[in-house]
Design a protein that fits this description.
With 474 residues, the protein is an alpha+beta fold. The chain folds into two domains: 2-48 and 375-473, Dipeptide-binding Protein, domain 3 (Roll); 56-92 and 113-371, 3-Layer(aba) Sandwich (D-Maltodextrin-Binding Protein, domain 2), CATH 3.40.190.10. The protein has nine helices and 21 strands. The chain has helices at 74-87, 173-176, 225-238, 273-278, 335-343, 357-363, 391-399, 403-410, 440-449; strands at residues 2-7, 38-44, 56-59, 94-100, 103-105, 151-157, 181-183, 190-192, 195-200, 206-211, 251-256, 261-266, 298-304, 308-313, 326-332, 349-351, 366-371, 375-380, 462-463, 466-467, 469-473. The strands form seven sheets. The chain has a four-stranded antiparallel β-sheet. The protein has a four-stranded mixed β-sheet with strand order 6-15-14-13. A hairpin with a 2-residue loop joins strand 19 and strand 20 (466-467). The longest helix is centred in the first third of the chain and has 14 residues, at 74-87. The termini are close together. The model is unreliable at 1-54 and 60-141 (pLDDT under 50).
Length: 474
């Protein structure tokens, strides 16, 4: 634990160099006192969460032609939509600080599947105030007749703990396994995938999936409704061990009707039901969870825990075999090691930090593609706290945050600001709700109305002899 000072209100000259809930440890805030009135906060670091990285780049010379998006670019969005659906149930009281609605990734060098899967969607237009930053344009590469074959090496942070899709939500799983449904990249709506179609009963309690009859597992066995039934039961048996458990929280029963019909009965209707049920990765019932055999565009070739995993294309993929011959993911311990590997040509594609963008672009050796990221940073207030229970205090704290400056100085402008705790494109997001502007004068007024003043002249707010002291866990 370490202590810092959060000036209340923050002066316009305050240099925010660091971390707000969820940002990398090397970006923790160091907010210097610049005015007479200050808040003392105890900041307790929390282990950083695992998430898809914000920025990816690739060597320009690795592949001569830029084609349609690489097949696995659909995976972060699929996973994030599923996870975001669960998170949206528990963030009703969040006060959003920053949201990354843009990031960078390589254009796919090797071309699409024969029938391209969806790619990451552009974010809807930002609210009128504050305006979006200049780095948020999102343009899909123009499809070209790129050559077939080639092997791509992607670097990333952190090793894969498991390849069991029911115990992990790593993006790589989406290259091997698929769900009954997918997500439309344009509007976020569910679309057919392993299921050709579906219907929901009038009361919203029964969902019937009609499955494709032309899908094969990597070992050549046909995909059937028995596989969906096995997967749902496996998740329930795992219980809280599986991060997928939330998806089946309202499931009462399920059954396979013949080879290509799967029926799910719910205890209550839910607006996220199709996402919860449809995005669950399906595993083969005849092999069980131990076998890393899926229906996706790539098959497992080699996994060396702690070092790398290599996938090769599935020649029998129901959408058509991907152009890329093989894809390897290499794990690195930190950003510096990963960046060095990229610059030395050890990897073709890699995530980088916002502050490294100019350095990478300045070399002229890399292709950088900006696209919306399915993640955001925020501060959540504990409304049951004796101080934060006062809405005037919460509002004042929000007004002391210079969000635009944080965006520019902490994230190098690689993001946009949101007014709600939901990503653009989410069904419940509100583009008309704007984040509050920085207003130290108004914040001071609100705190005074709530009874907080520097009565003893020590430079810190107090009320009835008690200092205004808060804890911020990150």
């Amino acid at each position: 634990m370490y202590q810092t000072k959060w000036t209340c209100p923050l002066p316009s000259t305050c240099r925010a160099t660091g971390r707000l809930a969820g940002v990398a440890p090397n970006l923790r805030p160091r907010l210097q006192s610049g005015e007479a009135l200050s808040l003392r906060l105890d900041v307790r670091p929390h282990p950083p969460r695992t998430s898809s990285r914000a920025i990816r780049v690739a060597h320009r010379t690795t592949f001569p032609a830029i084609s349609s998006p690489f097949p696995f670019e659909i995976i972060p969005f699929r996973e994030a939509m599923s996870n975001a659906t669960a998170r949206s149930k528990c963030i009703l009281c969040l006060w959003t600080v920053l949201a990354l609605a843009a990031c960078l990734r390589t254009a796919a060098p090797e071309g699409p599947l024969a029938q391209p899967s969806p790619t990451l969607p552009p974010a809807p237009p930002s609210p009128p105030s504050p305006p979006p930053t200049s780095g948020l344009e999102f343009t899909l590469p123009t499809p070209t007749s790129s050559p077939e074959g080639g092997r791509l090496v992607e670097g990333g942070l952190g090793e894969l703990a498991t390849l069991d899709p029911l115990l992990a939500d790593e993006a790589v799983m989406g290259l091997i396994f698929e769900g009954l449904l997918a997500v439309d990249p344009q509007d976020g709506a569910p679309i057919p995938n392993l299921a050709r179609s579906w219907r929901v009963s009038d009361d919203g309690l029964t969902v019937t999936f009609e499955l494709r009859d032309d899908v094969l597992w990597h070992d050549g066995e046909p995909f059937t409704a028995a596989d969906a039934r096995f997967t749902f039961q496996a998740v329930l048996d795992l219980g809280m061990k599986s991060p997928r458990r939330f998806a089946l929280a309202s499931v009462e029963d399920f059954e396979a009707l013949g080879a290509h019909t799967f029926v799910v009965k719910l205890s209550e209707p839910g607006c996220s039901a199709l996402y919860d049920l449809g995005l669950l990765p399906i595993v083969a019932h005849h092999l069980g969870r131990a076998a890393i055999v899926g229906t996706g565009p790539f098959m497992l070739e080699e996994w060396v825990p702690g070092d790398h995993v290599t996938l090769v294309r599935n020649p029998r993929y129901w959408r058509g075999a991907p152009r890329l011959e093989a894809w390897t993911y290499r794990a690195f311990p930190d950003e510096e090691a990963l960046l060095a590997a990229l610059e030395e040509g050890e990897v073709d594609v890699a995530p980088i930090r916002p502050q490294d963008v100019r350095r990478i672009e300045g070399t002229g050796r890399f292709e950088v593609l900006r696209y919306p990221a399915a993640e955001y940073y925020f501060i959540a207030f504990n409304n049951d706290h004796p101080i934060l229970g006062d809405g005037r205090v919460r509002r004042a704290l929000s007004l002391t945050l210079d969000r635009r400056r944080l965006l520019e100085e902490v994230l190098a402008g690689q993001g946009t600001l949101l007014g709600v705790g939901l990503l653009p494109g989410h069904w419940a997001s509100r583009a008309d709700v704007r984040p509050p502007d920085y207003d130290s004068a108004r914040a001071r007024q609100l705190l005074a109305q709530a009874g907080w003043a520097d009565s003893d002249g020590d430079g810190f707010l107090d009320r009835e002899g008690e200092p205004l002291r808060l804890s911020l866990s990150t």
